[in-house]
Amino acid sequence: xxxxxxxxxxxxxxxxxxxxQCQVYQPLRVKHCWECGRCVRTHDHHCPWVGTCVxxxxxxxxxxxxxxxxxxxxxxxxxxxxxLVHKETAGRRAQPPHWVERRVLLVLxxxxxxxxxxxxxxxxxxxxxxxxxxxxxxxxxRWFKIAYLKDYPPEAGSxxxxxxxxxxxxxxxxxxxxxxxxxxxxxxxxxxxxDLERTEDGWAIWQLKKQxxxxxxxxxxxxxx
Length: 225
What we know:
Structural class: alpha+beta
Low-confidence stretches: 4-12, 87-91
């Protein structure tokens, strides 16, 4: 999103930081990315694997990218282990020395894939937590270095969180979807539209609220389960 050098989307009472590189005032949750060379809304992190920043406009796609990678690695692991422990004859399994002697490359490949699976699984779990809590990687890691967060105790939750369902709805709704919802009506991934102000092109205008830790009881759908 192109940020203009004005305070048009500033929440009331908020003192915005001025980015000297982009010559704009940064709304809340905006960070300048040196790799991309621009200010990024609801910045999460710069990912070298996808070659761009993960942020408000693409974080839901990045999440499903992680899920797809996790499934792919899981399938390869299952196939590899199946080939490794297959029975040569009914009732008799191959012995470990046979694995090492005859399938060295397969064993090494499985070790590598298992390592990658553990890393992607941990990353997926972490981003699931971020989506539920309405936080970003940048905010979590640099909490006490960020001007609008440093005075808040991190154990009390995010000052942007409203409820579990609301947080997930906002996370899963990219700006183009929000714009559609404003013009045509609610879509499947749209959170409560009255609780989050947005710019004309659908970008969120965040405002600091009372800190909140989401729970399953916050979500009406969860209470029905």
